Amino acid sequence: MIKALIWDVDGTLSETEETHRAAFNAAFAEAGLGWNWDRATYRRLLLVTGGKERIAAHSARIGPALPVSRVTKLHRVKTIHYGRMIKEGQVQLRPGVMALIRAARAAGLHQAIATTTSRPNVEALISATLGQPADQVFDVIAAGDEVSAKKPAPDVYQLALSRLGLAAGDCIAIEDSLPGLASARAAGLRVLITPSAYTDDGDFAAADWVLADLTRALPPQLAEILAPA
Ligand code: XBP
Ligand code: MG
Predict the structure, then answer these.
(1) For residues 153 and 142, what is the distance between their CA atoms, to the nearest angstrom?
(2) Could you tell me if the CB of 8 is within 6 A of ligand 1?
(3) Residue 171, class by beta-carbon neighbours within 10 Å (0-12 exposed, 13-18 middle, 19+ buried)?
(4) For residue 229, with 0-12 CB atoms within 10 Å meaning exposed, 13-18 middle and 19 or more buried, which class applies?
(5) Is there an atom of ligand 1 within 6 Å of 50 CB?
(6) What is the Cα–Cα distance from 51 to 3, expressed in whole angstroms?
(7) 85 vs 19, 92, 129, 151, 163, CA distance in Å?
(8) What is the pLDDT of residues 160-206, one digit of tens each?
(9) Which whole-number Å values give the CA distances from 160 to 139, 175, 215, in the listed order?
């Protein structure tokens, strides 16, 4: 019996990674680092989950590795740029997302978020795209800055499940990436994948369902619950 949907954020609710990439580059320019991540570089770097971890991995690869304090400061500046860009209206929800959020709510399903990004970024995105505070749209929010191990570790999905008070078998995860798929599977959830601009080359054979986007026919188990009574 499906009792909840657990939503990934970046790439799933919205194509936000282009805005993250612009925010990273704005922080690097402000710091006079001379780094500029183009799309091909960023696609590769997205295999490292977490913005701080991504900056650290890049600096270690090109050397010299930046000290943790410098990485943390860069990421803090990046997050300020990201929030500003989102508030300026740079992104909207992916097709079918708002309709599914509403239909699931109407059908009495709980809705949660399980994301690698930080809580402030979730707040900025939901208020900019849905015009409401995130905790009025989602019953539970589990963010990357609340767990010690980010996706593909199961921690953030386990945190969402414990806050929902539900078993993994009662929930479906909606994701866009291989780290997200691995994380949700490791937490015991069934996974619906909607590949995004930066993950469209992924091998999602391990997913329970793969849809181009949420305007396509939903899995029957979900569609029948959402069908109007
Ligand atoms: C995707 C991520 C995040 C974002 C950048 O998160 O891996 O790191 O790329 O956000 P999701 P931060 O699990 O929602 O797909 O810089 O805040 O990490
Ligand atoms: Mg994602």
Answers:
(1) 13
(2) yes
(3) buried
(4) exposed
(5) yes
(6) 32
(7) 7, 12, 12, 25, 30
(8) 999 999 999 999 999 999 999 999 999 999 999 999 999 999 999 99
(9) 10, 14, 25
Give the ligand whose atoms come closest to the C-alpha of residue 80: 1
Is the entire prediction scored with pTM above 0.85? yes
Summarize pLDDT for 48-58 with one digit per residue, the tens: 999 999 999 99
CA distance 122 to 134: 7
Of the candidates 122, 167, 98, the residue with the CA atom closest to the CA atom of residue 8: 122
Residue 183 CB less than 6 A away from ligand 1: no
**CB count, 10 Å around CB of 104?**
20
- Dist CA 179 CA 93 (whole Å): 21
- Residue with CA nearest ligand 1 atom 4: 117
Q: Is the dihedral of CA 42, 47, 51, 56 positive or negative?
A: negative
Q: Which atom of ligand 1 is nearest to the CA of 8?
A: 14
Instruction: Enter the tokens of residue 123.
Output: 């707040």
Provide the b/e sequence for 177-192 (b: ≥16 CB within 10 Å): bbbbbbbbbbbebbbb
